[in-house]
Amino acid sequence: DRDQWTEESSSDEVEERSDEAVEKEKKEEKVKTKLSAYQDFEKNERATRIKENLLNSNSINLEGINKTYIYGSVLIVGIAVLCYLLYSTCNNPTNVKHINANTSHDTSRVDQFSNTIKKIKNDFPSQKDILWLSLFKRIKYVTESHPTRPAIMILLYNRNKNVAECIAWKVGKAAREFFNTPAVIELIGDSDMNETDNELVDRYRERLQKNGVMIVYRLDEIPGLVAQSFHTFCDTQNPLVKRAVLLFTLDRSRLRNVEINKPTRIASEVLRLLWNDTLNDFKLNSLITRLTDSVLEIHSEKDDFKCFK
Protein backbone atom coordinates (compact mmCIF):
# COMPACT_ATOMS: atom_id res chain seq x y z
CA ASP A 1 0.00 0.00 0.00
CA ARG A 2 2.79 2.28 0.84
CA ASP A 3 4.39 1.70 -2.52
CA GLN A 4 1.08 2.23 -4.24
CA TRP A 5 0.58 5.51 -2.35
CA THR A 6 4.02 6.59 -3.34
CA GLU A 7 3.35 5.80 -6.97
CA GLU A 8 0.06 7.68 -6.87
CA SER A 9 1.74 10.60 -5.14
CA SER A 10 4.45 10.69 -7.73
CA SER A 11 1.88 10.49 -10.46
CA ASP A 12 0.04 13.46 -9.01
CA GLU A 13 3.22 15.47 -8.81
CA VAL A 14 3.99 14.69 -12.42
CA GLU A 15 0.54 15.82 -13.43
CA GLU A 16 0.93 19.04 -11.40
CA ARG A 17 4.31 19.73 -12.98
CA SER A 18 2.84 19.00 -16.38
CA ASP A 19 0.02 21.45 -15.77
CA GLU A 20 2.47 24.10 -14.57
CA ALA A 21 4.61 23.59 -17.67
CA VAL A 22 1.62 23.91 -19.92
CA GLU A 23 0.53 27.04 -18.09
CA LYS A 24 4.03 28.48 -18.34
CA GLU A 25 4.20 27.69 -22.03
CA LYS A 26 0.87 29.43 -22.53
CA LYS A 27 2.13 32.52 -20.72
CA GLU A 28 5.33 32.50 -22.72
CA GLU A 29 3.34 32.10 -25.91
CA LYS A 30 1.20 35.09 -24.97
CA VAL A 31 4.31 37.15 -24.27
CA LYS A 32 5.83 36.12 -27.56
CA THR A 33 2.58 36.98 -29.33
CA LYS A 34 2.47 40.43 -27.72
CA LEU A 35 6.14 41.01 -28.47
CA SER A 36 5.67 39.94 -32.06
CA ALA A 37 2.64 42.18 -32.41
CA TYR A 38 4.58 45.12 -30.94
CA GLN A 39 7.48 44.44 -33.28
CA ASP A 40 5.10 44.26 -36.23
CA PHE A 41 3.55 47.54 -35.14
CA GLU A 42 6.99 49.16 -34.93
CA LYS A 43 7.88 47.86 -38.38
CA ASN A 44 4.60 49.10 -39.83
CA GLU A 45 5.02 52.49 -38.14
CA ARG A 46 8.57 52.81 -39.43
CA ALA A 47 7.50 51.76 -42.92
CA THR A 48 4.67 54.31 -42.84
CA ARG A 49 7.03 57.11 -41.83
CA ILE A 50 9.51 56.12 -44.55
CA LYS A 51 6.70 56.04 -47.09
CA GLU A 52 5.45 59.47 -46.02
CA ASN A 53 8.98 60.89 -46.22
CA LEU A 54 9.40 59.45 -49.67
CA LEU A 55 6.08 60.90 -50.78
CA ASN A 56 6.98 64.34 -49.41
CA SER A 57 10.40 64.18 -51.01
CA ASN A 58 8.91 63.12 -54.32
CA SER A 59 6.35 65.91 -54.07
CA ILE A 60 9.06 68.52 -53.49
CA ASN A 61 11.22 67.09 -56.24
CA LEU A 62 8.25 66.93 -58.55
CA GLU A 63 7.41 70.59 -57.85
CA GLY A 64 11.02 71.60 -58.57
CA ILE A 65 11.03 69.47 -61.70
CA ASN A 66 7.77 71.09 -62.87
CA LYS A 67 9.16 74.61 -62.35
CA THR A 68 12.40 73.71 -64.08
CA TYR A 69 10.45 72.16 -66.92
CA ILE A 70 8.26 75.26 -67.32
CA TYR A 71 11.18 77.69 -67.24
CA GLY A 72 13.17 75.49 -69.57
CA SER A 73 10.27 75.22 -72.00
CA VAL A 74 9.75 78.99 -72.05
CA LEU A 75 13.47 79.54 -72.63
CA ILE A 76 13.59 77.00 -75.44
CA VAL A 77 10.52 78.52 -77.13
CA GLY A 78 12.01 82.03 -76.81
CA ILE A 79 15.31 80.93 -78.32
CA ALA A 80 13.48 79.15 -81.12
CA VAL A 81 11.42 82.26 -81.96
CA LEU A 82 14.52 84.48 -81.89
CA CYS A 83 16.43 82.09 -84.13
CA TYR A 84 13.50 81.96 -86.52
CA LEU A 85 13.28 85.75 -86.73
CA LEU A 86 17.02 86.08 -87.24
CA TYR A 87 16.98 83.35 -89.84
CA SER A 88 14.02 84.87 -91.66
CA THR A 89 15.63 88.32 -91.70
CA CYS A 90 19.08 87.15 -92.70
CA ASN A 91 17.89 84.70 -95.34
CA ASN A 92 15.26 86.92 -96.89
CA PRO A 93 16.99 88.58 -99.85
CA THR A 94 14.40 91.36 -99.89
CA ASN A 95 15.07 92.33 -96.27
CA VAL A 96 18.83 92.16 -96.67
CA LYS A 97 18.73 94.20 -99.85
CA HIS A 98 16.41 96.74 -98.24
CA ILE A 99 18.63 97.19 -95.18
CA ASN A 100 21.80 97.31 -97.22
CA ALA A 101 20.23 99.68 -99.73
CA ASN A 102 19.11 102.12 -97.03
CA THR A 103 22.46 102.03 -95.26
CA SER A 104 24.34 102.37 -98.50
CA HIS A 105 22.08 105.17 -99.69
CA ASP A 106 22.46 107.17 -96.46
CA THR A 107 26.23 106.70 -96.42
CA SER A 108 26.45 107.68 -100.07
CA ARG A 109 24.42 110.86 -99.50
CA VAL A 110 26.54 111.93 -96.52
CA ASP A 111 29.75 111.22 -98.42
CA GLN A 112 28.49 113.17 -101.40
CA PHE A 113 27.55 116.15 -99.22
CA SER A 114 30.93 116.00 -97.48
CA ASN A 115 32.71 116.03 -100.83
CA THR A 116 30.63 119.00 -101.96
CA ILE A 117 31.57 120.99 -98.84
CA LYS A 118 35.23 120.15 -99.47
CA LYS A 119 34.96 121.47 -103.02
CA ILE A 120 33.36 124.69 -101.78
CA LYS A 121 36.14 124.99 -99.21
CA ASN A 122 38.74 124.90 -101.98
CA ASP A 123 37.14 128.00 -103.50
CA PHE A 124 37.66 129.94 -100.26
CA PRO A 125 41.23 129.32 -99.08
CA SER A 126 41.20 132.15 -96.51
CA GLN A 127 38.43 130.61 -94.42
CA LYS A 128 39.19 128.57 -91.32
CA ASP A 129 38.48 124.84 -91.09
CA ILE A 130 36.05 125.39 -88.21
CA LEU A 131 33.68 127.15 -90.62
CA TRP A 132 33.32 124.13 -92.91
CA LEU A 133 33.22 121.63 -90.08
CA SER A 134 30.41 123.54 -88.34
CA LEU A 135 28.40 123.92 -91.53
CA PHE A 136 28.74 120.22 -92.34
CA LYS A 137 27.81 118.95 -88.87
CA ARG A 138 24.82 121.22 -88.37
CA ILE A 139 23.33 120.58 -91.78
CA LYS A 140 23.95 116.83 -91.48
CA TYR A 141 22.13 116.81 -88.13
CA VAL A 142 18.80 117.94 -89.57
CA THR A 143 18.85 115.10 -92.11
CA GLU A 144 18.82 112.50 -89.33
CA SER A 145 15.72 110.43 -88.60
CA HIS A 146 14.28 112.59 -85.83
CA PRO A 147 15.82 116.08 -85.65
CA THR A 148 14.47 118.18 -82.79
CA ARG A 149 15.47 121.60 -84.08
CA PRO A 150 16.54 123.42 -87.26
CA ALA A 151 20.13 124.37 -88.05
CA ILE A 152 20.45 128.16 -87.55
CA MET A 153 23.68 129.86 -88.60
CA ILE A 154 24.80 133.46 -89.02
CA LEU A 155 27.71 134.16 -91.37
CA LEU A 156 29.33 137.23 -89.83
CA TYR A 157 31.43 139.40 -92.15
CA ASN A 158 33.16 142.79 -92.13
CA ARG A 159 32.47 144.64 -95.40
CA ASN A 160 33.30 141.53 -97.49
CA LYS A 161 29.65 141.02 -98.41
CA ASN A 162 30.34 139.19 -101.67
CA VAL A 163 32.37 136.46 -99.95
CA ALA A 164 29.76 135.86 -97.25
CA GLU A 165 26.85 135.79 -99.69
CA CYS A 166 28.71 133.50 -102.08
CA ILE A 167 29.45 131.02 -99.29
CA ALA A 168 25.82 131.19 -98.12
CA TRP A 169 24.53 130.53 -101.64
CA LYS A 170 26.87 127.60 -102.36
CA VAL A 171 26.32 125.95 -98.99
CA GLY A 172 22.54 126.48 -99.28
CA LYS A 173 22.57 124.86 -102.72
CA ALA A 174 24.59 121.91 -101.38
CA ALA A 175 22.12 121.54 -98.49
CA ARG A 176 19.19 121.54 -100.92
CA GLU A 177 20.83 118.75 -102.93
CA PHE A 178 21.52 116.87 -99.71
CA PHE A 179 17.85 117.22 -98.71
CA ASN A 180 16.74 116.44 -102.26
CA THR A 181 14.24 119.31 -102.22
CA PRO A 182 13.04 121.52 -105.10
CA ALA A 183 14.65 124.90 -104.36
CA VAL A 184 16.42 127.23 -101.94
CA ILE A 185 14.34 130.05 -100.44
CA GLU A 186 16.23 133.35 -100.76
CA LEU A 187 15.26 136.54 -98.93
CA ILE A 188 17.25 139.74 -99.36
CA GLY A 189 17.10 142.21 -96.48
CA ASP A 190 15.84 145.69 -97.29
CA SER A 191 15.16 148.64 -95.03
CA ASP A 192 11.91 149.28 -96.96
CA MET A 193 10.43 145.94 -95.94
CA ASN A 194 7.13 146.56 -94.15
CA GLU A 195 5.56 143.13 -93.68
CA THR A 196 4.47 142.24 -90.19
CA ASP A 197 6.09 139.28 -88.52
CA ASN A 198 2.90 137.23 -88.96
CA GLU A 199 2.73 138.00 -92.68
CA LEU A 200 6.31 136.85 -93.19
CA VAL A 201 5.68 133.63 -91.28
CA ASP A 202 2.50 132.94 -93.27
CA ARG A 203 4.32 133.59 -96.54
CA TYR A 204 7.29 131.30 -95.93
CA ARG A 205 5.97 128.60 -93.60
CA GLU A 206 4.81 126.14 -96.28
CA ARG A 207 7.74 126.92 -98.55
CA LEU A 208 10.20 126.18 -95.76
CA GLN A 209 8.43 122.92 -94.95
CA LYS A 210 8.63 121.93 -98.60
CA ASN A 211 12.16 123.08 -99.41
CA GLY A 212 13.94 122.92 -96.05
CA VAL A 213 16.60 125.55 -96.86
CA MET A 214 16.27 129.32 -96.43
CA ILE A 215 18.95 132.00 -96.93
CA VAL A 216 18.40 135.49 -95.53
CA TYR A 217 20.95 137.90 -97.00
CA ARG A 218 21.81 141.15 -95.19
CA LEU A 219 20.04 140.57 -91.91
CA ASP A 220 21.33 143.97 -90.80
CA GLU A 221 19.12 145.66 -93.43
CA ILE A 222 15.86 144.19 -92.12
CA PRO A 223 13.77 146.44 -89.80
CA GLY A 224 13.26 145.18 -86.27
CA LEU A 225 9.47 144.83 -86.56
CA VAL A 226 9.88 142.58 -89.62
CA ALA A 227 12.77 140.67 -88.04
CA GLN A 228 10.45 139.55 -85.24
CA SER A 229 9.23 136.82 -87.59
CA PHE A 230 12.58 135.05 -87.16
CA HIS A 231 11.66 134.54 -83.51
CA THR A 232 9.18 131.97 -84.82
CA PHE A 233 11.42 130.50 -87.54
CA CYS A 234 14.38 130.11 -85.16
CA ASP A 235 12.52 128.64 -82.19
CA THR A 236 14.63 125.70 -81.03
CA GLN A 237 12.22 124.55 -78.31
CA ASN A 238 9.05 124.42 -80.40
CA PRO A 239 10.32 124.97 -83.95
CA LEU A 240 8.10 125.94 -86.85
CA VAL A 241 9.98 123.44 -89.05
CA LYS A 242 12.38 120.97 -87.43
CA ARG A 243 14.04 119.67 -90.58
CA ALA A 244 15.32 122.99 -91.91
CA VAL A 245 18.49 125.03 -92.48
CA LEU A 246 18.39 128.81 -92.00
CA LEU A 247 21.46 130.76 -93.12
CA PHE A 248 21.81 134.49 -92.39
CA THR A 249 24.51 136.94 -93.47
CA LEU A 250 25.27 139.83 -91.13
CA ASP A 251 27.59 142.83 -91.59
CA ARG A 252 29.48 143.71 -88.42
CA SER A 253 31.03 146.94 -89.73
CA ARG A 254 28.49 149.09 -87.83
CA LEU A 255 30.01 147.99 -84.53
CA ARG A 256 32.84 150.32 -83.53
CA ASN A 257 33.89 148.46 -80.39
CA VAL A 258 37.03 146.61 -81.50
CA GLU A 259 37.58 145.06 -78.06
CA ILE A 260 34.86 142.49 -78.67
CA ASN A 261 36.39 139.55 -80.52
CA LYS A 262 33.98 136.64 -80.05
CA PRO A 263 31.68 136.15 -83.07
CA THR A 264 28.55 135.42 -81.01
CA ARG A 265 29.07 138.48 -78.83
CA ILE A 266 29.77 140.66 -81.88
CA ALA A 267 26.61 139.50 -83.66
CA SER A 268 24.53 140.07 -80.52
CA GLU A 269 25.81 143.63 -80.10
CA VAL A 270 25.24 144.46 -83.79
CA LEU A 271 21.63 143.26 -83.66
CA ARG A 272 21.03 145.07 -80.40
CA LEU A 273 22.37 148.27 -81.96
CA LEU A 274 20.10 147.84 -84.99
CA TRP A 275 16.80 146.97 -83.30
CA ASN A 276 17.04 148.55 -79.87
CA ASP A 277 14.80 151.46 -80.86
CA THR A 278 11.93 149.33 -82.17
CA LEU A 279 11.82 146.27 -79.88
CA ASN A 280 11.55 146.19 -76.10
CA ASP A 281 14.28 144.45 -74.13
CA PHE A 282 12.35 141.22 -73.59
CA LYS A 283 11.51 140.70 -77.27
CA LEU A 284 14.94 141.85 -78.41
CA ASN A 285 16.88 139.59 -76.06
CA SER A 286 14.75 136.57 -76.91
CA LEU A 287 15.12 137.20 -80.66
CA ILE A 288 18.90 137.69 -80.45
CA THR A 289 19.31 134.49 -78.43
CA ARG A 290 17.54 132.46 -81.11
CA LEU A 291 19.29 134.07 -84.06
CA THR A 292 22.79 133.69 -82.61
CA ASP A 293 22.55 129.95 -81.97
CA SER A 294 25.67 129.52 -84.14
CA VAL A 295 27.73 132.47 -85.41
CA LEU A 296 30.50 131.71 -87.91
CA GLU A 297 33.08 134.28 -88.89
CA ILE A 298 33.81 134.98 -92.56
CA HIS A 299 37.24 136.28 -93.57
CA SER A 300 38.17 138.31 -96.64
CA GLU A 301 39.48 136.60 -99.75
CA LYS A 302 41.76 138.09 -102.40
CA ASP A 303 40.79 141.39 -104.01
CA ASP A 304 40.05 139.71 -107.33
CA PHE A 305 37.60 137.27 -105.76
CA LYS A 306 34.62 136.38 -107.93
CA CYS A 307 31.69 134.17 -107.06
CA PHE A 308 30.91 131.62 -109.74
CA LYS A 309 27.37 130.34 -109.36
From TrEMBL:
Region ranges (Disordered): 1-29
Domain of life of the organism encoding this protein: Eukaryota
One term of GO molecular function: ATPase activator activity
Taxonomic classification: Eukaryota, Metazoa, Ecdysozoa, Arthropoda, Hexapoda
Alphabetical UniProt keywords: Glycoprotein, Membrane, Nucleus, Phosphoprotein, Transmembrane, Transmembrane helix
Main location: membrane
Species assigned in the record: Rhodnius neglectus
Residue ranges with Basic and acidic residues bias: 19-29
Subcellular location as annotated: Endomembrane system; Nucleus envelope
Membrane-traversing stretches: 69-87
Segments forming domain Torsin-1A-interacting protein 1/2 AAA+ activator: 99-250
Ranges of biased composition (kind: Acidic residues): 9-18
Topology versus the membrane: Single-pass membrane protein
Protein family according to the UniProt entry: Belongs to the TOR1AIP family.
GO biological process, one term: membrane organization
The protein's name in its UniProt record: Putative conserved plasma membrane protein
InterPro entries noted in UniProt: LAP1C-like_C_sf, TOIP1/2, TOIP1/2_C
GO CC terms, sorted: membrane; nuclear envelope
